[in-house]
Amino acid sequence: MKAAAITAKLVDMRNVGTHKVLKLTIHVPEEEALKAIAAFGWPTGVAPVDVAIAQLDLSKVQQKETTRRADDDSTTTAPEAAPREQRRFSDLSLPQRAGMLCNEPAFWTYLQEHYSERCRLLNEGTDSEKAALILRSLCMVKSRSELNEGDSSGRTFLHLESGYRLWMKFPELTA
Questions:
Q1: If you compute the radius of gyration of the chain from its CA atoms, what whole number of angstroms results?
Q2: Which one, out of 18, 69, 112, 145, has a CA that is 20 to 30 A from the CA of 91?
Q3: pTM for the full model?
Q4: What values do phi and psi take at 87, rounded to 5?
């Protein structure tokens, strides 16, 4: 097992007396969701994932980074890239979201469970390529770039995306 570290926010704690445990609610930013799923899979009560918890003092992390840059005695310094503006997943265009969705391994699993007949017909290609093909077929477009919120292709994609998100949160309810 490979170690992974993902920055998140602890937002709630509750005692679960019947199990004699403390339940922690941790929010991971949407931008880190794929990284979290790749690192931890999809834990369940039957198959939990061992993790460690540590509080981060981000001011110290930033101080160390600043000190490290100041200690760098190289004579040539590359210009620092401007910080990228963080955008919410929901603010991305439908084609961008569709592209990201097709690269999520869990999305291919979702498609196999819910559109098994179409998925069985595909023998070649990576899972993300197969997911893209099924998505284009369901949305009736030749390219994901044709997805448009104002027509049936966009509505179909949004329905597919919301079904997938619901399945991710409650897989036992959507089977």
A1: 21
A2: 112
A3: 0.50
A4: -115, 145
Do 146 and 153 contact (CB within 8 A), yes or no?
A: yes
127-139 vs 105-114: helix crossing angle, rounded to 10 = 50
How many residues does the structure list for the chain?
175
Of 45, 147, 68, give the one whose Cα is nearest residue 102.
147
Residues 6+ positions from 160 with CB-CB distance below 8 Å? 135, 138, 139
pLDDT 10s digits, 83-133: 666 777 778 899 999 999 999 999 989 999 888 887 777 878 888 999 999
What number of other Cβ atoms are within 10 A of residue 74's Cβ?
6
Cα–Cα distance, 16 to 145 (Å, whole number) = 47
Nearest to 33 by CA among 84, 107, 94, 85: 107
Burial 15-39 (b: 16+ CB within 10 A, else e): eeeeeeeeeeeeeeeeeebeeeeeb
Q: How far apart are the first and last CA of the chain?
A: 29
Q: 72 with 129: CB under 8 angstroms?
A: no
